[in-house]
DNA sequence: CGAAGTGTTGAAGGGTTTCAAGCATAGTGG
DNA sequence: CCACTATGCTTGAAACCCTTCAACACTTCG
């Protein structure tokens, strides 16, 4: 509960009345064990689910039998806000660990937004933040090698977890199987295994009983290649060379060096 | 302008005062020619841009020199709403054709949302819609072959364009080079070429002077494989077999056949 | 102890990339 | 009007990253 409230407050300035409204709306909480479907693709969308505790994921099954996980959901994340918009669910949601989930009716959310504009703003900011994360994953899937993709995901998770807590001394619980990592990264289980081994061999990470330890943040970030500055290793801000100019110019990828 | 207003109205019920507010905020319009950078990655984010006419894209450049286009922007799309959230731009935006763009200050958007809750709701719905599109692209990039990805993109564009207009008789203007298609789909230019040829050879599509003609919607949708029902070929709704059940069950991909 | 899930390893095969070159088309200036 | 150039499209061959298949080891748990 607290993590969701913190998240909302980080997004928009909320007063006590808004906070109370949220807390009231989240009164309906269910507890699920690991590997349980929360919503199924194609189902009518009548509720919004907020992940209070545990890890979960959105996933899509392909006709040929494959699976893709377009989003990992961490404590405080909203699992399926698009229920406000769509009649039918465009993806399924399943737990990865034991979870605590708040169930809200779409009507209630709509009503709350109409009454408290700041709440709508907070939800919008959350959706935009998710959008940025998906953009990065998109870039990763489209243009990075397996090694880069794995490194990038590990950095992203460290970033997202450090917002709340954890990541103390550069290690965090990673309750994902290699098969699930593969479904996130668009890789086969076998190849995920080999890439993790290679990262271990290079003394960048260490894995032990469902925990990931990052031995070399700079090195891992370098492999990840883009948009991957852990909160710790802040480094020099705006390290990019050259001044940016306003529009009415050639696109960057066509500029002379 | 009209396309943006229509889009907003489709997302949330807007009164005359909201519409006027939007129209007032969009009074600052600039005209750009094709292949022009609108915003650059890393730049401070002080404005939000709305694409009134023409095609544009978000893009990210990778250290090794590659490029990924995580989003194609069509008339009525908001190019960079996340400027409301981030200090620095997480991606660049460039025009693909000549464009008309409204430039809004972030402050103005924030103020409008505070005054008109329905407007915030509309923007939220727009962001969620974008999110669903990115989810689909994500699945496509992660788990589909080049052929499937191309088919999927062509279907997606048909869908998005048919919301507004166009797509009459199953053809639409597609002002993208094969290199740009590759940057959207995470493929090399060469392979995009070969895949398009193969789709042509199978009498699924036809390409002529920057227009795409779909000869066989069912066939193309079948290649695309998932989530790809053009508004035309609506077909039998909910064609999936088996009834969906509520949660507290095993995830779908582990269910016995 | 057996069973199931997860991690690990090797070998073969294939989808895609890269490199390199040739072709087509449109715009430009002499 | 015609080189001349630039841009995008097309094609072939070699190389590579990753997948698939198959088997085995390890751990957990009933």
Q: What does the model show?
A:
In chain A, the strands form 3 sheets. A 4-stranded antiparallel β-sheet of chain A has the order 2-6-4-5. Chain A has a 3-stranded antiparallel β-sheet with strand order 1-7-3. In chain A, strands 8-10-9 form a 3-stranded antiparallel β-sheet. Chain A is 41% helix and 19% strand. In chain A, helix 5 (146-164) packs across helix 8. Chain A is built from 8 helices and 10 strands. The radius of gyration of chain A is 20 Å and the shape is globular. By secondary structure, the first copy, chain A, is an alpha+beta fold. Mean pLDDT of chain A is 88; it is low at 230-246. Chain A has helices at 2-11, 16-25, 106-115, 117-143, 146-164, 178-185, 189-201, 217-224; strands at 29-32, 37-39, 47-53, 56-61, 67-73, 92-95, 99-105, 171-173, 205-208, 211-214. Chains A and B meet through strand 2, strand 4, strand 5, helix 3 and helix 4 of A and strand 2, strand 4, strand 5, helix 3 and helix 4 of B. The structure holds a DNA duplex (30 and 30 nucleotides).
- Main sheet characteristics of chain A: 4 strands, antiparallel
Order of helices and strands of chain A: HHEEEEEEEHHHEHHEEH
Note poorly predicted spans of chain A.
230-246
Strand adjacency order, main sheet of chain A: 2-6-4-5
Most residues in contact, chain pair and counts: A-B, 79 and 79 residues
Distance between the termini of chain A: 51 Å
Overall mean pLDDT score of chain A? 88
Q: What gyration radius of chain A follows from the Cα positions, in whole Å?
A: 20 Å
- Can you count the beta strands of chain A? 10
Number of helices of chain A: 8
What oligomerization state is this entry in? homodimer
| Strand composition percent of chain A | 15-25%
Give the fraction of residues assigned to helices of chain A. 40-55%
Query: Which class of secondary structure composition applies to the elements of chain A?
Result: alpha+beta
Shape of chain A: globular
């Amino acid at each position: 509960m607290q993590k969701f409230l913190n998240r909302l407050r980080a997004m928009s300035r909320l007063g006590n009345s808004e906070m109370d409204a949220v807390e009231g709306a989240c009164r309906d909480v269910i507890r699920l064990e690991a590997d349980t479907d929360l919503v199924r693709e194609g189902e009518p969308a009548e509720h919004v689910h907020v992940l209070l505790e545990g890890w979960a994921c959105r996933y899509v099954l392909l006709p040929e039998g494959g699976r893709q996980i377009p989003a990992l959901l961490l404590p405080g994340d909203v699992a399926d806000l698009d229920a406000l918009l769509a009649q039918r669910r465009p993806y399924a949601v399943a737990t990865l660990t034991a979870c605590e989930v708040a169930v809200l009716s779409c009507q209630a959310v709509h009503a709350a937004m109409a009454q408290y504009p700041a709440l709508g703003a907070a939800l919008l900011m959350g959706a935009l933040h998710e959008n940025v994360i998906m953009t990065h994953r998109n870039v990763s899937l489209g243009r990075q090698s397996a090694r880069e993709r794995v490194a990038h995901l590990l950095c992203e998770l460290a970033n997202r977890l450090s917002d709340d807590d954890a990541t103390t001394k550069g290690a965090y619980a990673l309750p994902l199987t290699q098969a699930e990592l593969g479904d996130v990264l668009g890789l086969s289980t076998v190849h995920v295994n080999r890439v993790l081994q290679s990262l271990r061999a290079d003394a960048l990470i260490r894995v032990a009983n469902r925990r990931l330890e990052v031995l070399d943040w700079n090195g891992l970030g370098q492999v990840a290649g883009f948009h991957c500055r852990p909160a710790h290793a802040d480094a020099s801000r705006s390290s990019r060379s050259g001044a940016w100019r306003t529009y009415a110019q050639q696109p960057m990828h066509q500029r002379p060096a």
